[in-house]
Amino acid sequence: MLIPKPREEPEHPKHNKRHQNTTKRVGLTRKARAGNRVGSGCPQEVARPNKAGLHKTGCKEGDSVLGRPPLMLTLRDVTKTFNARTLFGGANMTVNYAERVALVGPNGAGKSTLFSLILKEDEPDAGEVIRDEWTTLGYLPQESEPVGDETILDVATGKAGEMERLEKILREHEERGDVSAPEYNEAHSKHDALNDPQAEAKCKKILKGFGFKEEDFNKPAREYSGGWVMRAHLARLLVIEPDLLLLDEPTNHLDLLSLMWFRNYLKNYPGAILLISHDRDFMDELIETVYEIEESKLVQYQGNYSEYLKQKEENWDRAYQAWKNQQKEIEAMQEFIERFRSVASKASQAQSRERQLEKMEKLDRPRPLRKAFRFNFPQPQRSGQRVIALTDIHQAYGEKKIYQGLDLEIEKGERTVLVGPNGAGKSTLIKIMAGEVAFQKGERRFGTNVKMGYFSQHRADTLEPELTILEELKRCAPELREDDARSILGSFLFKREDVYKKCKVLSGGEKSRLNLVKFLVDPPNLLLMDEPTTHLDIWAIEGLILALQKFEGTLVFISHDVHFIRSLATKVLHINAGTVTPYSGGYDYYLEKTGAEENARAAVIAQ
Ligand SMILES: Nc1ncnc2c1ncn2[C@@H]1O[C@H](COP(=O)(O)OP(=O)(O)OP(=O)(O)O)[C@@H](O)[C@H]1O
Ligand SMILES: [Mg+2]
């Protein structure tokens, strides 16, 4: 392994400050950090403005006088366009030390694209992205890269991939003698963090928080689903503890317990966090500033997610009231003009009103606030009363026994949710029903007229990257006429020329929506759905809830979205250590009866 040279102290005074600060900041509470922040004005020695009137750190002239800290990240007047569609124009944003900022907006709005601009993977069409070059950055992408033979612990400690990458950067800089560059400093500090003797212990603790067990650590990562690999990547980021964490929908694949653990962990995180999320509860606990991409604009709101929603409603009410008042005023002026235009004594007054009306800056009628959209898909053929029966099922993965003698029946019209801790066998059970995993003993029987469809948890590679949306839909429903295909795509918000987009450029949520269309275009009467809301925005989730509430078939599903479960489940199956306990009521009934919520909270607090 490469042992990097001890770092020379770079000349940039900010660098020294950052390192003192990092060590100081670790382990501090939010309050203490906030205290730290107040005093950390832009240091005088950095207060040398460059040509644009900005310091190297991005703070404006005078900030140090006001005692404001230097900025980690500034977006100034940034515009990004894809094929004549402007994702956002004139966007401004700042992120400061220890700030918790959320970036929200509907699927396809451009959130992940904005991250790629911050990461300098892509360029804006106009404007600038200014990053404090001494800020170390950690990034969790929306979708995880495929993994190979490395173990879970290797992924999390960076022994696979990351260490090698960092060492390459260090070596190249050292060979060039360029060891005071910010990139060298960044690689060095990340390398230090992963090389720390405590790193492995810290990593294991974090992995456990994310639901891994001791016996998972040395297993190859490729045996785990994308969601679990994502957790291992996330663990690595938390060990490195970069100054600025960029997280693109980190909660998508977390179950309830790890979600609570992660939220608590981030609350005490010493650096700044910029988070893309559709999870309201998660953001409410953590976030202090929200930026929203809406109608190609980036708008800032102070407060957490609920406060943002409130302000948005209030802004809309105000804009609507202002527009209505102006309409009344316009009507009154027009009436006056009509009435007195030909009355000699008042004609000049009428003319002057006319000019006034022409000059008046007209307000636009505010567009209605976004609502859940309506999914249109046909109802399936009816099935018999008993839909599926499992009898005396025995299932094991190698040595690991999951079910021993499981009996289960699902009846027509039920909407059953499977709940239980990680690794309890929820996905396995749904796969047994779907015929996707073999069981060693027992019987699976369908009732009369049952047509089953399985919507799997991992759908990343179910779309052909080079096909367009329309071609992809036709591939799975060749009978469908073009205008019917377009109409169903339209009801899932793929309008007009959108249908000619290639699958490879779709955003996470757009991919999820297309998978739903493919699944529901000719719906089976038994839907088996594993995490159907992953990547969907709140409006799409709401739309899916409305559609599934009207669905006349039978639904068995797994979800980590409490609102989704609550709105749909009529029956709960709790799965733990191979035992399935049914609760014939909704989610709240199950929580009340078992005290599950309190137990989960207690478990998180005890860690
Ligand atoms: N290379 C590209 N060419 C054309 N369009 C693209 C390209 N990359 C992305 N897009 C489009 O830009 C839009 C924004 O994509 P982006 O991934 O930033 O959305 P997002 O806000 O992250 O959405 P989600 O919530 O679904 O993750 C999408 O409509 C996507 O299809
Ligand atoms: Mg995205």
Automatic annotation (TrEMBL):
<dbReference type="Pfam" id="PF00005">
    <property type="entry name" value="ABC_tran"/>
</dbReference>
<dbReference type="InterPro" id="IPR032781">
    <property type="entry name" value="ABC_tran_Xtn"/>
</dbReference>
<comment type="similarity">
    <text>Belongs to the ABC transporter superfamily. ABCF family. Uup subfamily.</text>
</comment>
<keyword id="KW-0547">Nucleotide-binding</keyword>
<feature type="region of interest" description="Disordered">
    <location>
        <begin position="1"/>
        <end position="63"/>
    </location>
</feature>
<feature type="compositionally biased region" description="Basic and acidic residues">
    <location>
        <begin position="1"/>
        <end position="13"/>
    </location>
</feature>
<dbReference type="InterPro" id="IPR050611">
    <property type="entry name" value="ABCF"/>
</dbReference>
<dbReference type="InterPro" id="IPR027417">
    <property type="entry name" value="P-loop_NTPase"/>
</dbReference>
<feature type="domain" description="ABC transporter">
    <location>
        <begin position="73"/>
        <end position="321"/>
    </location>
</feature>
<feature type="domain" description="ABC transporter">
    <location>
        <begin position="388"/>
        <end position="602"/>
    </location>
</feature>
<keyword id="KW-0067">ATP-binding</keyword>
<dbReference type="InterPro" id="IPR003593">
    <property type="entry name" value="AAA+_ATPase"/>
</dbReference>
<dbReference type="Pfam" id="PF12848">
    <property type="entry name" value="ABC_tran_Xtn"/>
</dbReference>
<dbReference type="InterPro" id="IPR017871">
    <property type="entry name" value="ABC_transporter-like_CS"/>
</dbReference>
<dbReference type="InterPro" id="IPR003439">
    <property type="entry name" value="ABC_transporter-like_ATP-bd"/>
</dbReference>
<protein>
    <submittedName>
        <fullName>ATP-binding cassette, subfamily F, member 3</fullName>
    </submittedName>
</protein>
<feature type="compositionally biased region" description="Basic residues">
    <location>
        <begin position="14"/>
        <end position="34"/>
    </location>
</feature>
<keyword id="KW-0677">Repeat</keyword>
<dbReference type="GO" id="GO:0003676">
    <property type="term" value="F:nucleic acid binding"/>
</dbReference>
<dbReference type="GO" id="GO:0005524">
    <property type="term" value="F:ATP binding"/>
</dbReference>
<dbReference type="GO" id="GO:0016887">
    <property type="term" value="F:ATP hydrolysis activity"/>
</dbReference>
